[in-house]
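Example record

One chain of 251 residues, shown exactly as stored in the release files.
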Amino acid sequence: MKVLRTGLMILCGAAVLHTAKAQEVNDTAKLFAEMKTLQGVYQQKALSFDIRYTYASELHPETVLDSLSGHADIAGSNYYYQLANTEMTANDKYVVTLFKEDKIMYLSKPMALNAADPLEQMRVSMRTAGVNRCAVTEKGTVKSIRVGFREGGPYKELQMDFDKSSGYLLSMRYVLKTSMLMESTGGANAEAPEEYGEYAIVQSYYENYKQLSGQEKEFDSARFFYKEGDEFKPTAAYSEYKVFVGSPDLK
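Predicted structure tokens for this chain:
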């Protein structure tokens, strides 16, 4: 199914026998403090990991309708993110996005949001959508954070599972309006086809964690382009790509 490909690219567990213990946390300040601590794992270490996304309708959660696989490397403000036919590489000066099917190279300034950091993405979404309930649970080696959002918003609920020992994110499950994933310009205000249902279930899995040196050459934007006067031109390896500059004052 192609209908969810664009949406999944934008958005940019373990079984145990112990009894779960839960603590309700209705103070959003405490929730964000908890997430900030967990996010520190991705900010303090240079990490590499694989990502897998699946989509199902809330009407039939057992049936996977679409899936995508990708990869991310994070080293401070430098990151590399690959999903389907899109790749994004960022350093302290440039963000280079490659749309491989269309042979387009899009250049822009670094963003405040690290596109490869799943926790940063969700912190922004949570602040925007508004949290009305949350709970932290621990079961064996896994810590889970469950969040419910205000009624009528784009998100309905979210669950994140972490490995208690390493602090690494293991999986994320969020229920959101199907229209947010549709390949249309309507976004969350558009109406999803009836057969898809009003809400979608998107699950992401994070695997094969490895530590990086932080000095990988893949973060070097000189691999992609060079400047000739005021013009940005692709290197020989990307000579088939057309360059578009998204930031007017890019230097």
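Notes: The helical segments are 5-10, 28-44, 118-129.
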